[in-house]
Structures are given as structure tokens and as C-alpha cells.
Specification:
283 residues, alpha/beta, 7 strands, binds hexanoyl-coenzyme A, binds NADP nicotinamide-adenine-dinucleotide phosphate
Length: 283
């Protein structure tokens, strides 16, 4: 889909880049010319991602262990990565924590844990890179991975909904405040895309297929590749005049849930059109 030099000159840090969507973005970015650094708490998935990129021919792939909740650990990881790879000029805030829980049953620590990863973690990584970009006068590109329920809220994922809404506010705030430094800030709001991390925590077994068919107008779940392609575009110079934008990638799921008459699309179309014809006043 893209020229194989679409991200030449980019050095991109992806938080949570060892698994799922983060790994898909890392592999895609590396495949179109970026140097990539992945960061997370567990060493093994990070090492596997680096190895996969290298075995596909990408030489510039690096990993650093850090907890995004801890600004000191993040700062140390960014500093050590930059010694290896040189100045980082792109950041994808992708690390997240989430689980299904009735809100009245959440402990204070459970709420704190998710908000710390998603909202504070995004802030810590953003500030660590943003300060460098401002000091260097180099500009930079940020992409935050949000969700579609950041606008609507959602039952049973209260800490994530609150934190992801905050991430959208951060994206839009910094898009304007830091534009003067040549920094772009955008976000992606994905609908359901199968990953071990998300689906093991959020999709009760057996619900997946039915969920896709009933809720998503395009009739299927998303793929990691589709997400990675969109992220590639937003990180690249092809999007150099796009900032403060949130792109939804969900097969139409959120729109369908909101439209008064959208439920009628679930009926066989010819049957529904026959019903409409029967309601039409006769001439
Ligand atoms: C209720 C829970 C819980 C659960 C953990 N807790 N899981 N409470 N229901 N299922 C509580 C714990 O009891 C504890 O509170 C507190 O949360 C912190 O838990 P720890 O296990 O000590 O925390 P930690 O090791 O830091 O792990 C963080 C985590 C974990 C968020 C709880 O799930 C994690 O590491 N997740 C990372 C990956 C992830 O979540 N990926 C999914 C992203 S998908 P107490 O009070 O007992 O100390 C996504 C969007 C999907 O974000 C949208 C789909 C459409
Ligand atoms: P995932 O595989 O569980 O990814 C989460 C990543 O974040 C993991 O690599 C994890 O690595 C890292 N992480 C978690 N806590 C961290 C911390 N404290 N410090 C550093 N890294 C941490 O799930 P995913 O589905 O790919 O999700 C990726 C992003 O997409 C998330 O922002 C998620 O909210 C968003 N999203 C996903 C979907 C979907 O359907 N998959 C839909 C909407 C939005 P470690 O555990 O090793 O730290």
C-alpha cells in the first residue's frame, strides 16, 4: 500500500510495542523504512518483536524495559534508547491496561492502575519526548491510541473510558499548544481488533463472532494490519497538515449504535423494503 520508504528518516518509539497492535505497528513502520524502538514491562515480547523485525530484514529495531506509570523509568529508557538509535522523532502512545469490572466493585487501586497506565503513562511519554523535541527545535510526531468509547463512555470499563477520554483531550490540547514547535499530535480510535491482551480481558468466550455480526455494519472485526496502515499514514509526511485529529477505525460500529433507525439494517433488506412499501400511502 505504501512505498517502502514511506517512513524513511523516522525513529519511532512505540509504548506497548511488544504485543498486539503495538507490535503490528512496529513491524509495519520498520517495513517502510523507520527505525523502531519498542517499550514495555516484559522483556520477552519486546525481544520477540525486535527479532521478528530483524528477521524480516529491518536492522534498526530496539527495545527498552520500562513502566510508563513511572516517569523516572521512562526517562531512563528514552535516554538509553537515544544513545543506541539516535534522536527519536516519533512517539506512539499505545500501552494500555483494561479489564471488565462492575464499577461498584472496583478497588481504588484497580481504578488507579488503569488510569496510571493509560492517562499518566501517555502524559509521561509525551512529556519525555516533547521536551526533547522542543529543546532541539526538531519537531516531532505523536499518535495516541484511544478507543471509540472515549466519547460515549462505556459500561464495565470505567477507568479505561475516563483515561481514554483524557487522552483525547491531551491530543487536542497539545496539537494546538505544541504546533508552534512543529509537533503534530493525532489519535486513532479503534473498534474491536483481536489481540490476546484485549480479548482475553474484554471479550467473554463465544461472544466474539456474534458481537461482530450484530454490531458492526461492515460485518467483521478489524485487523492489526488495517490499524497499522492507518498509523503509518498518520506518522508519515503524507499527514503533515493533519493535527488534533482522531480517526475512528471500527467498521461503522459506533455510528450504528447511535442512529435511531439503524437497527432496521439487521433485517433482510428485501423484507424490510417490502415493509416500507406497505407503509407508503396509496395514490
Ligand atoms: C477487578 C482487577 C482486575 C479485574 C486487576 N484488578 N484485574 N479488579 N477485575 N479483572 C485489580 C487488582 O485486584 C488490583 O487491585 C489492581 O487492579 C491492580 O492490579 P495488578 O494486577 O496488581 O496490576 P498490574 O500488575 O499493574 O496490572 C495492570 C492491569 C493488567 C491493568 C490490571 O490487566 C495489565 O497489566 N494489563 C496490560 C494489558 C492490557 O490490559 N491490555 C488490554 C488493552 S485493550 P487491588 O485493590 O486488589 O490491589 C484496551 C481497549 C480495548 O485497552 C477496547 C476494545 C474495543
Ligand atoms: P495489548 O497487547 O495488551 O497491549 C498493551 C501493551 O501495553 C502491552 O504490550 C503491555 O506490555 C503494554 N503495557 C501495559 N502496561 C504497561 C506499563 N505500565 N508500562 C509499559 N507498557 C505497558 O493490547 P492491544 O489490543 O494491542 O492494545 C493496544 C492499544 O490499542 C491499547 O491502547 C488499547 O487500549 C488500544 N485498543 C485496542 C483495541 C482492540 O480491540 N485490540 C480496541 C481499541 C483500542 P507489558 O505488559 O509487557 O508492559
Amino acid at each position: 500500500m505504501y512505498a517502502n520508504d514511506a517512513l524513511n528518516g523516522s525513529t519511532i518509539l512505540i509504548t506497548g510495542g511488544g504485543t498486539g497492535l503495538g507490535r503490528a505497528m512496529a513491524e509495519r513502520f520498520a517495513g517502510v523504512g523507520a527505525a523502531v524502538a519498542v517499550l514495555g514491562r516484559r522483556e520477552d515480547p519486546l525481544a520477540e518483536t525486535v527479532a521478528a523485525i530483524q528477521s524480516a530484514g529491518g536492522t534498526a529495531a530496539y527495545a527498552a524495559g520500562a513502566d510508563v506509570r513511572d516517569p523516572a523509568s521512562l526517562e531512563a529508557a528514552v535516554a538509553s534508547l537515544e544513545e543506541e538509535v539516535g534522536p527519536i522523532n516519533g512517539l506512539v502512545n499505545n500501552a494500555a491496561g483494561n479489564f471488565l469490572c462492575a464499577s461498584e466493585d472496583l478497588s481504588a487501586n484497580a481504578f488507579n492502575s488503569v488510569v496510571q497506565i493509560v492517562l499518566y503513562g501517555t502524559f509521561h511519554a509525551t512529556q519525555a519526548l516533547g521536551r526533547r523535541w522542543i529543546e532541539r527545535g526538531s519537531g516531532g510526531v505523536m499518535l495516541n491510541i484511544s478507543t471509540t468509547y472515549a466519547w460515549t463512555g462505556s459500561s464495565f470499563v470505567l477507568p479505561s473510558a475516563c483515561a481514554k477520554a483524557g487522552v483525547l483531550a491531551m491530543t487536542r490540547s497539545l496539537a494546538v499548544e505544541w504546533a508552534t514547535y512543529g509537533i503534530r499530535a493525532n489519535a486513532i480510535a479503534p473498534g474491536p481488533i483481536p489481540t490476546e491482551g484485549a480479548f482475553s480481558r474484554l471479550m467473554p468466550p463465544g461472544a466474539v463472532e456474534a458481537h461482530a455480526k450484530q454490531r458492526i455494519p461492515l460485518g467483521r472485526l478489524g485487523t492489526r494490519e488495517e490499524l497499522a496502515d492507518l498509523a503509518t499514514f498518520l506518522m508519515s509526511p503524507m499527514a503533515s497538515w493533519i493535527t488534533g485529529e482522531v480517526v475512528t477505525i471500527d467498521g461503522g460500529e459506533v455510528l450504528k449504535a447511535g442512529g435511531e433507525f439503524n437497527g432496521f439494517t439487521d433485517h433482510p433488506r428485501e423484507q424490510f423494503k417490502a415493509a416500507l412499501a406497505s407503509m407508503r400511502p396509496s395514490k
